[in-house]
Design goal:
This protein is mostly beta strands. The chain has a single domain, classed as Neuraminidase (6 Propeller), CATH 2.120.10. The chain contains 4 helices and 28 strands. Strand 4 and strand 5 form a beta hairpin. The N and C termini lie far apart (100 Å).
Amino acid sequence: MGILRKLAIAVLVFAVVLGAGLFYLSRGNTAELSVDAVAGTDPTLEEPEAESFPTVQIAKPVGWADGEAPEAAEGLSVNRFAEGLDHPRVIYALPNGDVLVTLTRAPAPEGDGDGGIMATIRGWVAGYLFSEAGAAGASANEIVLLRDADGDGVAEVQQVILSDGLDSPSGMSWFDGTLFVANHNAVLAFDYELGSDAVTGDARKLMDLPAGGGHWMRNMEIHPDGDRLYVAVGSVSNIGESGMAVEEGRAMIWEYNLTTDRQRQFAAGLRNPNGLDFSPWSGELWTTVNERDMLGSDLVPDYLTNVPVGAQYGWPWVYYKNNIDRRVEAPMPSYLLEYTRHPEYALGPHVAALGFVFTAEGHRMGDDMASGAFIARHGSWNRKPPSGYDVVYVEFDERGNPQGTPVPVLTGFLNDDGTTKGRPTWAEWAGDGSLLVSDDTAGIIWRTLASQSAPGAAIVQVTGEPLRAQGELVDPRATFEEDYLRRGAPQ
C-alpha cells in the first residue's frame, strides 16, 4: 500500500472519529428533572455536569399569525396593545397612563479582533445564537410612547419621542419632570413633562457604566422616594473565564444618589440581574437573576430574590449559597461562603427570567393573582427540552415571602415543532390595571387582565416594633435566668 493511500485512509479515519465526536458533543445534555422541580423555595439541585461545549437548542422565532395570541390563564383575556415595534424590550408606565418602551438590541461590537482564536470563536458562536434567536441586527435606539387615549385597550398613538443620545437603551424611570434612561454604557437624564410628544432637551450624563459585554442590558428602577436610582449590570462572561479584570463594576446592582450625585456598589455576585421592583410588603429592592450555564440542563436555576444593601450572591465562585463552581480559575475571596446569601426563590433552569413586577394597587388580575409577582421568562437557548417562553405568577404570603411553584399566566409562545412565535421579555402595569408584556422577537406588546374583576386593593405593608438599642453590656444568661425565675419554672 502506497504512502499516499495510507495517509488518505488515516485522514479519513481521523475525520470520521472527529465527526462522530462532534456529533456526540452536539447532542448536549438532556434534563432529567421538570422545570418546576428546579423552582420554588427549595429547588432540587442536581450534581453539576460540566460541559466542554454548551447544550444548544434554540427556538427559532416564526412570529404570530393574524388573530393569534398567547394562551391566558383561566379568567384572563389577552389582546395586542401595540404591534409593529422593532424589538421592544423594557416597558415603563408613566404616572399619567402613557407607556414608554425601548426599542433596542445589543451594541455594535468594539475592538479590532485581537482577542485571540478563542475570542474569535466565542464571538462567532454568540453571533450565531443571536441570529437564530431573533436578536441580531442593529439597535433601533429609540424610545416610543404608547397612548391609549380612548381606553379600549389598544394604543392608537405610537410615537418615537427620543432617539438622540441613545445607545442600546434599556431601563427607564421618571420623577418630577425628569426621564432617566440607562444606555449600555451610561445613565442619562432628560427633561420631560408628562403628556409631551417628544423629548427635546439635551442629555445630562449622571454616571458611566461598564460598556457592552456578554450581558448588555442595563435595567433601572427609581426608589419610591425619588432620590435614588438602582441600575442592574450583568457580567461579561459565564464564570469569569475572560478574567476578573473585565468584570470590574459588573455582575452587580449600582445605586446612584440623585441628591449627592454620587454612586456606590449596592449589591454584588449577581451574574446577570435584570428586572427590579420594590416589595410592597417590606419596601426592599428585589431582582431577577440569570444564573450560569454549562453545568447541564438541570442547573443552575435563575432566581428571584431580595437585595439588601451589601448583599453578595457569590458569582462566579458560588451558586445557591454554598455550591462551589470548581470551573472558576480566579482565586475565591476569603470568607465568601460565610457571607454569600441564599436566593429566595428559584425560577427554573435556563428560563432567562427578565422583567417582573409585584402586585400593585388597582391591578385587575383577579383574586387568585392578588398577592405576588409576575415574571417574564424569556426562554432558554441551552436546555433540552426548552424552558421558559412564558409569563408566570409567584404567590407571596402575607409577610412578603414567596411560596409554591410558578403559576402560568401567558403560555403558547413555544410551538410543538421547536420554533417559537415570540419571547416574553418585560412586564409592567398599565394605568387601567392590566398587565403589559413585551414580546421582543414578535414586536408586540401584549395586554392581559381579568376583564370582569374590580381594581385590586393595595398590599398592606408589614410593620413592627424595631429592636430597642441596648444601653449597657449584659450577660444574656443572667437576663434569661432572671426572666425564667420571674415567670416560674414549668411544672
